[in-house]
Amino acid sequence: MAAFLRRGFLWLLSVTLLLADVDSTENTFYTAGVVEYRPTIMGSSSDQLLEANLAGYLEIMASGNGTTDIIVFPEATLNSVVTLTAVPEWTKESLCEEQVGDDPEIAPFLRSLACAAREYSTYLVVNVKERVPEQCTSDETCSSRGYSIHNTNVVFDRQGAVISRYRKWNLYLEPSTNRTESPEMATFTTDFNVTFGHFICFDMLFYTPAQDLVEQLGIRHVIVTKMFNSELPFLTASQFQQGWAWANRVNLLASGGSLPQGGISGSGIYAGQQGALARLMITDALEGERKLLLARVPLNPEEPIATDEILEPERTTPVKLKLLQQPELSNFATWELPMVRGSSVDKRICQEDLCCQFRVTWTPMEAQQEYNYRLGVWVGQRRYEEEQYSAIRLCGLFACRGSTVESCGLVSEEQEHLQGHRVVFTQLEILGEFVRRPRRLLMPSTLSSSSLYALQPSQLAWSMEELDSVTRIKMELRQPHSQLMTFAIYGNYFDEYASGGAGRLGALLFLLITPLIMSYLFRE
Ligand SMILES: *[C@@H]1O[C@H](CO)[C@@H](O)[C@H](O)[C@H]1NC(C)=O
Ligand SMILES: *[C@@H]1O[C@H](CO)[C@@H](O)[C@H](O)[C@H]1NC(C)=O
Ligand SMILES: *[C@@H]1O[C@H](CO)[C@@H](O)[C@H](O)[C@H]1NC(C)=O
Questions:
Q1: Is the C-beta atom of 178 inside 6 A of ligand 2?
Q2: Where are the domains of the chain?
Q3: Which of 300, 381, 443, 484 could anchor a disulfide with 247, C-beta 3.0 to 4.6 Å?
Q4: Measured from the CB, is residue 144 less than 6 Å from ligand 1?
Q5: pLDDT band at 228 (very low <50, low <70, confident <90, very high)
Q6: What is the percentage of the chain residues whose pLDDT exceeds 70?
Q7: Are 343 and 337 in contact (CB under 8 A)?
Q8: pLDDT surpasses 80 at 510
């Protein structure tokens, strides 16, 4: 109340005395839109699919009524490898004008989007499959195709001129797509004085170029176009987006493809440690959605936002989204929480160079629960679907469908009668000591089981302290929670094992030997 009165007074003061000041408070935000987009992928020719998706894009842009300063569409939801387009690196004028961009390979759909950017006077980010003619110096360097294909973000300004282009560096199961010779660092500056960096989906799991943009270039506003396969318990789409923005203390505009039957959904607008301003995960349907999410984003991600925090829905809906599962769970050091009313524990769990201290108080509300819970610590290397790896150090609490560790990260889909049979956590604190490394990112990884959204700042406290050889992270639940799925500290140590020749060999040996040692050690 006092704060309200004070704010009211200050407001009055600023209106009566400092009109210019009112203007400047208005200018501390920009309006961003990210699109969760269900692509048309079946039913007709490639040209017709492209046409249908373009029409969907234009319809969504129209629905914004010109209110956005910037709007972002997801990865791989527009054209395909048989409906390629050239993409100029930049153009002086709008690509809406036929004579601009002197290249017959620039497809009409790209020009239509430039016209839409101009019509709604908005910056526009789209992702396309790009055709690039090969520069053939000798027969060896030329493929039979005669051109290469890139997975490319294109950015238009409010007139429809191309102001930035980025070709994906970390490809994920994209056999027909080429990589650039070296990674690109793509940025652009807007008329509202914000410099954005942008990249694509899988890039977010690696240091280059995502962390380079943040750490080397000091970028505070990041755009990512996505088509992301969610994985429980630590890497579902919105959870990861929110954790990444939190850890980097940046604004993140994430636009995702919407194909829940294929495990893909998740978009949002996040403001650093202020959490999600808008977000959408389609978890309760097999059919995706087409939706424009809007938010007023602070120019400074650290500047407190006046609007009410959005929370996850209370109501739990059965999860239909197809989810991957963390592949290394059986190698975690874990401890299962006994389901006894009014339990409390103070426990230290270690694996290799990571020790975490857990203080937990919990009580099951019914005799039988929807989920069991484990505390766990893991230091190891993981593989993604591609031959790409990250060294991971993590510790936390996570939900399990049954009493085995292999059942952690499985949703309780067949147990609908148990819905609402919850465990209430009244105290939950993790203290982790993570070894310091120059290239790593320590993120909160949290998830509520009601709809697979991350915890918001009113629910989560996070602090970091740098000591000589370790970073001490303290993560705490700020209020009781009865629908926890994940509450963890997730450390991505990027290429700790995989960089360089020796590193690669080490990684290979690690991969070959670890399962052998593990199976020997844990033989029952
Ligand atoms: C755009 O205008 C329509 C019709 O006036 C309205 O229903 C809709 O909410 C508006 N959208 C935005 C984003 O302002
Ligand atoms: C692009 O990728 C294709 C398919 O993998 C390959 O045949 C071709 O040589 C690549 N082109 C370049 C320039 O690397
Ligand atoms: C633009 O932003 C920079 C730093 O991000 C700041 O130094 C500069 O004063 C700003 N310019 C305007 C016109 O607001």
A1: yes
A2: 29-298, 326-498
A3: 443
A4: no
A5: very high
A6: 87
A7: yes
A8: no
Q: Which amino acid is at 343?
A: S
Contact 329, 406 (CB under 8 A): yes
For residue 151, which phi and psi values (nearest 5 degrees)? -95, 110
| Residue 451 CB partners (closer than 8 Å, separation 6+) | 281, 283, 284, 312, 313, 316, 317
Q: Is the peptide bond before 209 cis (omega within 30 degrees of 0)?
A: yes
**d(CA 73, ligand 1 centre) in Å:** 19
Element (H, E) at 293: strand 291-298
CA distance 385 to 377: 23
For the Cβ of 177 lying below 6 angstroms from any atom of ligand 2, the answer is: no
Nearest CA to ligand 2 atom 1: 178
Ligand nearest to the CA of 192: 3
Task: Give, using CA atoms, the residue closest to atom 1 of ligand 1.
Answer: 65
Assessment of whether the complete model's pTM goes beyond 0.85: yes
Ligand 3: centre distance to CA 194 (Å): 8
Q: Which of 36, 75, 370, 496 is catalytic?
A: 75
Q: What is the edge-to-edge ordering of all strands in the sheet holding 354-364?
A: 343-351, 354-364, 423-435, 470-477, 460-466
The C-alpha atoms of residue 133 and residue 146 are separated, in whole angstroms, by: 6
Task: Give the helix/strand (H/E) hosting 117.
Answer: helix 108-119
Please tell me what DSSP assigns to residue 85: B
What atom of ligand 1 comes closest to residue 65's alpha carbon?
A: 1
What lies within 8 Å, CB to CB, of 335 at 6+ separation is 347, 349, 374, 375, 376
pLDDT higher than threshold 50 for residue 502:
no
Q: Reply yes or no on whether 201 is catalytic.
A: yes
Architecture field, domain 29-298: 4-Layer Sandwich (3.60)
Alpha-carbon gap, residue 114 to 126, rounded angstroms? 10
- Of the listed 168, 174, 226, 496, which one is catalytic? 168
**Pairing mode, if any, of strands 221-226 and 251-256?**
parallel
